[in-house]
Amino acid sequence: MARYRLILAYDGTDFRGWARNDGVRTIQETLETALATALRRPALISAAGRTDAGVHAAAQVATFDGPDDLDLQRVVRSLNALAGPEVAVLEADRVEPDFDARRSAHHRSYRYAVDNRTVPDPLLRRTAWHVSEPLDLGAMNRAASAFVGDRDFASLCRRGGGGHTQRTVYSAGWSGSGLLAFVVTARAFCHQMVRSMVALCVDVGRGKVDAAAVPGILEARDRNSAAGAAPPHGLVLVEVSYPEVT
C-alpha cells in the first residue's frame, strides 16, 4: 500500500461540511464514495481543515491509502467525473507513508469575502456576505491586529468539543474596496473562530464596537463578550502549508 495526496477545491454551499455525517451530504462522504468506485474497494480520506457546512475550499489537502501500482491519473479523472462539478481534484501525487494531511500541516490560511456595496452583486451571493452599511477598513485592520500572536480565543470559539482554545495566529488583515477580503493564517483554528473574527471586525467597521476594545474581548475568554459568527458562505480555505512534502 502507498499514500497519496489530493489538492481539492469545492463549492460547499449544498454540503453539510467536510466530515462524514450519517444522513446528510458531506464532502468526505461524496469523495469516499467516488474513490471507492474508482478503486473498487472501500476507501477512507483524511483531510486538513474540517470545514463547516456551507464553507468552501480552494486548496484543501487530503490523503488516502491505495495500491502501490495505482494509476493515479485515472483515479483523478474518475473522482472529477463522479464528484464534480461541485468538487474537483486539482492535483494529486504520491507522498511518504508517514505524511498526514492534518497532523503534518504547519499552518492554514482562510479568506473571508464581504460584499460591502449598497446593492449586492448577485454573482457573489454564494461566496460573499453582503453588508450594505459603510465599513471603516482602517478600524477593522486595527481590530484584526489584536488577533496576531499566541492567544486564547475562547471568546471567539464555539462552545463544545472540550478542546483547548489557545491558538497561534501568524497574520490577519483586511484589504479591498467594495469587495473586502479578510485573510488569516494560523497554526490551527478552533470551531467558528474565523467567522467570529469576521463578525467582530465587521461590528468594529460599523462603529458598534471600538477597535481598542478587541484585546479586552479576547482577554475575557467569554463567548458572550463577542458577537456571533459571520455566515459560512463567505469563507474559503485557501491554503494548507507543510514544512516538507516528499
What does this structure look like?
- This protein is α+β, with helices and mostly antiparallel strands and 246 residues long.
- It folds into two domains: 94 residues, Pseudouridine synthase I, catalytic domain, N-terminal subdomain (Alpha-Beta Plaits), CATH 3.30.70; 135 residues, Alpha-Beta Plaits (2-Layer Sandwich), CATH 3.30.70.660.
- The chain has five helices and ten strands.
- Strands 1, 2, 3, 4, 5, 6, 7, 8, 9 and 10 form a ten-stranded mixed sheet that branches.
- It is globular.
Give the tally of structural domains. Answer: 2
**The CATH architecture of the largest domain:** 2-Layer Sandwich
Based on helices, strands and strand pairing, what is the structural class? alpha+beta
The tally of helices reads 5
Number of strands: 10
Strand content: 25-35%
The CATH class designation of the largest domain is Alpha Beta
Mean pLDDT: 94
Q: How much helix is in the residues?
A: 10-25%
The helix/strand series, from N terminus to C terminus, equals EHEEHEEEHEEEHHE
* Main pleated-sheet profile: 10 strands, mixed
Low-confidence parts lasting 5 or more residues at pLDDT below 50?
none
- Rough shape? globular
- Return the CATH topology of the largest domain: Alpha-Beta Plaits
Please name the fourth-level CATH homologous superfamily of the largest domain: Pseudouridine synthase I, catalytic domain, C-terminal subdomain
Instruction: Please compute the radius of gyration using only Cα atoms.
Output: 19 Å
Note the gap between the termini.
17 Å
